[in-house]
């Protein structure tokens, strides 16, 4: 038996609970891992709220929270290739097993070895934020010297996009609340505080001819305010709001396979995708970790250290 943190029914934070569960048994194409570190993401509370379908693996309640983790392989299911017992790995829990737990199962095709020199803490932040950053910038395919607006730059994904964009020699403008300024500016972002100034007006002043690309992480009204700032509406890519297509833009095309995980890990080793980790919580403090992300009060990436 091992401790896990999850939810007994769909709802708000009041449905969250700690519970004990037997070690999951890896099925075909799965690996059982001892979890060292789990990443915390907005998707976690959306799944708990019942707003996202298809990522629970059909598992009964109580379900474990968390979508990404780093740890050590304890057992292999059938038809697992490229991974061995004892490997240090990181990846996605796309089987619905959750990651805020002492042990869990990951989908083997969506799991990769942690390269030597990369910590489990950094590796645990890459499945969501790291691969998303790679995907959106690959999709934009902007040349060095181009301008990109990261709308909602302060979170884990936004800072990952910004750091990788700076590494690609792009000129990066980022929007966010006052508390997000320090981390954004530290990696070379020209920051626009949406609580203190008109974002569209400030961005037009900085880039009068329009942006070569826009990466939206805020959605809703904020997306609609910045989308007209792009030279070409097709170069507006949203990570969370699929209505971007109504504006002529595109939704991010996600690649969550082992190849993209390995690529993200190499970029992290090179310092081009180094996450900004602002809080590390023990498993016993997982409720506070998720609360900071759910309430939008965190800058950078939050992780839960399990082992």
Give a description of the structure.
The two termini are 15 Å apart. The longest helix is centred in the middle third of the chain and has 15 residues, at 126-140. It is globular, with a radius of gyration of 19 Å. The chain is built from 9 helices and 16 strands. Helices cover 26% and strands 26% of the residues. It is of the alpha/beta class and 307 residues long. The chain has helices at 42-48, 120-123, 126-140, 156-167, 181-186, 199-206, 220-226, 258-269, 286-294; strands at residues 2-7, 16-21, 30-39, 63-64, 68-76, 88-92, 103-107, 111-113, 147-151, 171-176, 190-193, 213-216, 236-238, 250-251, 277-282, 301-305.
Present the secondary structure layout.
Elements: E1 2-7, E2 16-21, E3 30-39, H1 42-48, E4 63-64, E5 68-76, E6 88-92, E7 103-107, E8 111-113, H2 120-123, H3 126-140, E9 147-151, H4 156-167, E10 171-176, H5 181-186, E11 190-193, H6 199-206, E12 213-216, H7 220-226, E13 236-238, E14 250-251, H8 258-269, E15 277-282, H9 286-294, E16 301-305
Parallel strand pairs: 9-10, 9-12, 10-11, 12-13, 13-14, 15-16
Antiparallel strand pairs: 1-2, 1-4, 3-5, 3-7, 3-16, 5-6, 6-8
Helix pairs in contact: 3-4, 3-8
